[in-house]
Amino acid sequence: MKGSKKRLGILGGISAASTQKYYQKLTDLYYSLEKDYYYPEILINSLDFQYFTDLENEKRTTEYIQYIVSSIHQLQKAGADVIIMAANSPHSVYDEVKTRVQVPIISIVETTAQKAKELNLKKVLLTGIKYTMQSDFYQRKFKTYGIDVIVPDEQEQIQIDEIIFKELAIGKFLQSSRESILKIINGKNVDGVILGCTELPLLIKQENCRIPILDTLTLHVEKTLYNLLCKLKER
User: Fold this and answer.
1) Name one GO molecular function term (predicted).
2) What's the domain count of the chain?
3) Do 93 and 121 belong to one domain?
């Protein structure tokens, strides 16, 4: 990787807490694999989190797509060769976005579905913010892999959503909240759980859970770094 100019563009700030974790995991994993300091060059475009979530909650889809696309274009202009959107929810419009940009976007949903297939999971629970749990982009992708996706009931969705926005997004981690989410997970007849919000892995770990967890943040980081290392070694 010496002398490489390959650049990763991160669409971040959604939220700040998970974007920090992305950066840390990318650099830590790189060093653990390569044992040198020739880290990939990383560009971060940190979005207005409140505006972003307002667009989601108010279902202003056209503006939402436009905001994501224009932000990726800024990363392109800065020299990004590959993009990741450092959150699950913008992948609800992944197909619409990828046709409007000129660089590849590594999908967190595709990556997670591939891992679920590898683990031979048949039925999984999707957790995340309400926007994600009430959308169908995970269900559609997982169906192509022969995997069913279910979501918590309405009250459970509200509870998880509040924990994410009122606690995890600002770096607050409570044992009581961990126990609440685990109770929801353990109450479902599933063989795996998707942590479909990149803040959730900051609270829920595999050692906390009796069934396999799909840590979307870590899976996304691993796929991204694998992509970068392969591309760089081809140069």
Assistant:
1) amino-acid racemase activity
2) 2
3) no
